[in-house]
Write a structure and sequence with these properties.
Elements (H helix, E strand, L loop, with lengths): L71 E4 L2 E4 L18 H9 L20 H4 L4 E11 L8 E11 L4 E6 L10 E7 L20 E4 L2 E8 L5 E9 L8 E9 L4 E6 L12 E6 L2 E4 L18 E4 L10 E4 L2 E8 L1 H10 L31 H5 L14 H6 L4 E8 L4 H4 L2 E7 L4 E6 L10 E7 L24 E4 L2 E8 L1 H9 L6 H22 L9 H15 L7 H11 L6 E3 H11 L5 H10 L6 E3 H5 L5
Antiparallel strand pairs: 1-2, 3-4, 3-8, 4-5, 5-6, 7-8, 9-10, 9-16, 10-11, 11-12, 13-14, 15-16, 17-18, 17-22, 18-19, 19-20, 21-22, 23-24
């Protein structure tokens, strides 16, 4: 077989040429025959000892299939991609395929049935490029050669430029330092944008830039000679002290000086809950003038843009130093510290080594005492006090356990009003003390033809003791309510004259919470009523009464009543008359004793027993009319 290519066929280096036409001595080529049924042909032509032709499946044969494998498809209506298993020409790919160790690991992994497979650590939060690389710029020093065809003194000139690569969006800009009176259009030679690299749509990347290499942008070739360490921004920490003015204070700021174009930016340090709007940029990035040309005071510098004609000197890096104050647009900033890059820059550029930070002592604001206004009497004191602590007051916390334990437990007392008016001294009140929340309510029973409208006198509220303040308020407690004691309720003074039996039972069951004198006074108050009950249940001998003896006893009772001017005898008479339905003038003993108990008849034990004895008529009857003679209305 010939090893030379036939006419019109290209020769591929490294591949043996195979004539598509069969050799006359070999006969026709047989397809789809197993290799083991083919006998190796004998060499009938060529030089002796020539190697045999490679078999059909040898690596040296020519490829006839050049299409790529299909990697796109649809499943359940969704487009998906899969990795190719064969490459161009049908060769098996070993890239992006599982290796034998990976297959062995998968074959030996058993599922965990109890708790499932181990959970993977969640990936870290995604940070976009414009946030991660914000204000991060790569600066390269370069130059380009410009031809000068119309000059007899020079054939070309070298122009130095700075190439700035912005990492946040892979854009590039080219700046040439401006030289006064150079006669050349200098400054920004190439605006910031993504620069195309070739005709295929590729753009320059930071990997394409390095020292000692040439880069061509828009038919102009730049030679890169140097680059900065990372970024060329100086950062200073400063404060502006305006405490001398009204409502002024000391505010922290950060001053950025951009070495690329000598511009300055001042940013305010924003802190949470500092009461300021989140506008951190005080002065946007710009060139700041330091010394102006002599001008009139009426020059509208705040309106017109300042150009080089009005400025003698601009702010430079030499004007900023730690421990030095600098004035920017009429506001004086004191620089007390800087970052590490700024320290290294000043050390290498200006030989400055003193960067001792200045300690700024933050002036503590004067503590203004909180003045609580006096209580106006509306609502509960704790509830009204919350308006002095917050714009959105919250109700005071309640003792839920105490409310559950003392639910529906009320102590009731009888009150008499202390007043210079004789008509008010005859008024009686019922005080209810609620043990669940320590609130008090006062009710005045209605008395017919008294000229006073009874009913609710005081709604449920907590009553503070006299002398208590809003800062340290003390309220009436059950231990303060004893027989004969006086309480003051919003400017009105009352005297406790009686209580119900529940008060006595409650005080005896909680004797450790009450003074012994208060408990004894309450027991003495209930002793006459207890004697009445005992008399009703006893077999007292019924003897004839003497009118003279009865009259003498009535005089003694009336003398006793003179000491108790607050007793309303008219109510006693009305109560007995209402119970005498038939008008006989007598009541049975049980009804009579029950009325005495309810009306709290104020006589001592001896006189009461004797009077009841003399007024008795029969075994179960009492002449209440003789009894009422001792209580003239």
């Amino acid at each position: 077989m010939s090893s030379e290519p036939g006419p019109g066929l290209p020769f591929l280096p490294g591949c043996a040429f195979r004539d598509p036409m069969p050799h006359p001595c070999q006969g026709p080529v047989t397809d789809r025959v197993a290799p083991e049924h083919l006998e190796p042909p004998e060499h009938t032509s060529g030089e002796a000892g020539a190697p045999p032709d490679p078999p059909l499946d040898s690596p040296g044969e020519l490829k006839t299939s050049f299409h790529r494998s299909q990697t796109l498809g649809y499943k359940n209506g969704y487009a998906l991609s899969r990795l190719p298993t064969v490459g161009i020409g049908g060769e098996r790919l070993y890239v992006n395929q599982l290796s034998q160790p990976d297959l062995d690991e998968l074959s030996n992994t058993r599922p965990v049935l109890t708790y499932g497979q181990s959970k993977l650590t969640p990936p870290s939060g995604f940070v976009p490029a414009h946030v991660a690389f914000d204000k991060k710029i790569l600066k390269f020093d370069a130059y380009f050669q410009e031809d000068v065809p119309l000059s007899a003194e020079e054939a070309y000139r070298i122009r130095q430029v700075g190439i700035y690569y912005f990492l946040e969006d892979d854009s590039i800009s080219v700046m040439e330092p401006v030289v006064q009176n150079s006669g050349l259009p200098q400054g920004k030679l190439l605006r910031r944008h993504r620069v195309p690299k070739n005709d295929r749509g590729d753009h320059y990347h930071w990997k394409d830039l390095n020292r000692g290499m040439n880069i061509t942008m828009y038919s102009r070739t730049y030679r890169i000679v140097d680059c900065d360490p990372f970024t060329q921004v100086l950062r200073f920490y400063a404060v502006w002290d305006d405490a001398a003015s009204m409502f002024g204070e000391r505010q922290p700021y950060i001053i950025h000086y951009y070495l690329a174009d000598d511009t300055v930016e001042v940013r305010e340090v924003y802190q949470k809950n500092d009461g300021r709007h989140p506008f951190p940029v005080l002065i946007k990035r710009q060139r700041l003038p330091k010394t102006f040309v002599d001008r009139k005071k009426t020059f509208p510098s705040c309106v017109l843009e300042i150009s080089d004609l009005e400025v003698l000197e601009w702010h430079t890096a030499k004007d900023f130093a730690v421990g030095k104050a600098t004035t920017i647009l009429g506001r004086t900033f004191f620089i007390y510290d800087c970052d590490n890059f700024t320290r290294n820059f000043y050390r290498d550029k200006f030989g400055i080594t003193d960067f001792q930070p200045v300690e700024i002592n933050k002036k503590q604001p004067e503590e203004v005492p909180q003045v609580i206004p006096p209580y106006n009497g509306f609502g509960i004191l704790e509830d009204s006090l919350q308006n002095c602590f917050s714009l959105h007051p919250k109700p005071p916390r309640k003792d839920i356990i105490k409310m559950l334990e003392n639910d529906h437990k009320v102590l009731r007392y009888q009150l008499a009003l202390e007043s210079p008016n004789p008509e008010d001294r005859k008024r009686r009140f019922i005080l209810s003390y609620f043990l669940s929340d320590d609130m008090i309510s006062i009710y005045e029973p209605r008395v017919r033809n008294s000229g006073i409208i009874g009913g609710k006198y005081l709604g449920k509220t907590r009553v503070a003791k006299p002398g208590s303040t809003t800062e340290n308020a003390t309220y009436y407690e059950p231990s303060d309510l004893t027989i004969g004691s006086a309480i003051e309720v919003f400017g009105h003074r009352f005297v406790i004259t009686g209580a119900d039996e529940y008060v006595l039972n409650y005080m005896e069951s909680n004797a450790e919470s009450f003074p012994a004198a208060a408990l004894q006074a309450l027991r003495e108050h209930f002793r006459p009523q207890q004697v009445v009950k005992e008399t009703a249940n006893s077999d007292f001998p019924m003897l004839g009464s003497s009118r003279q003896e009865l009259d003498e006893l009535i005089v003694q009772v009336q003398e006793e009543l003179k000491l108790r001017e607050y007793l309303n005898n008219k109510n006693i008479e009305e109560a007995f008359l209402q119970c005498d339905k038939d008008g006989s003038g007598t009541l049975n003993r049980e009804t009579f004793l029950d009325l005495c108990n309810r009306l709290n008849v104020p006589t001592n034990t001896t006189l009461l027993n004797k009077l009841i004895h003399l007024c008795s008529c029969g075994e179960d009857k009492i002449n209440y009319r003789d009894f009422l003679r001792a209580f003239p209305s």
